[in-house]
């Protein structure tokens, strides 16, 4: 039995859908969610839905009961909260006798300078300390992290950021979810680590040029000092933690934090990763 946490999120839901596409019987898949009612669509596919609230550790052992494999999808929130939540899930996996935990980490977690990598380093270490058989999925930067802003940028006439000429080996959420499903259906995965990036690294100027070509509207990329970009995000109404994450990510991108390309994702997919042009076109048609 395979348990997928965060099953009502966009990533977890797609992992379950890909498990079913790969021929895993619905009766052997569990959608673990904080709010089970939101998983009604998955239940309609025959998937069992269980309550799994990272903030209520007592729900986790029950959610993992009988599981051979658990996909631990990283949570959201402050660093301290997330690490505590992940440790609760790790403890529950140990208690439940899970044979394999797959954890969604971040690309190059041990050396990644981004602030968000701290949680992933701590969680990877907690998994190792617990002695859990585990496979680590070090997910690269979601293409959607930047393409989601394109409709608004096209409307304004500029794409702004603080990433300079830094390159980003974008990978779509769908590709990463499909790769996670592939790993969960493969044998002998304990002890493996995958660094999952797109096949090509792009600058934000190139992203803007692609959006301009697709929309027929000129769209220059305007690079800003970090503090000025921070002020723009504040004025847009984003909460402080989100602003911190976005600005820090762009600054680290400008230093090359996400420029590396690996073949791990392509190997798991058995095909090239989804081109940036496809995601841009889909975003601007939506």
From TrEMBL:
Domain of life: Bacteria
E.C. number(s) listed in UniProt: 1.6.5.2
Keyword Oxidoreductase: yes
Top EC class of this enzyme: oxidoreductase
Claim: Nucleus is one of the keywords in the record: no
UniProt domain NAD(P)-binding: residue ranges: 6-185
Keywords: Oxidoreductase
Pfam families attached to this UniProt entry: NAD_binding_10 (PF13460)
GO molecular function, one term: NAD(P)H dehydrogenase (quinone) activity
Full protein name: NAD(P)H dehydrogenase (Quinone)
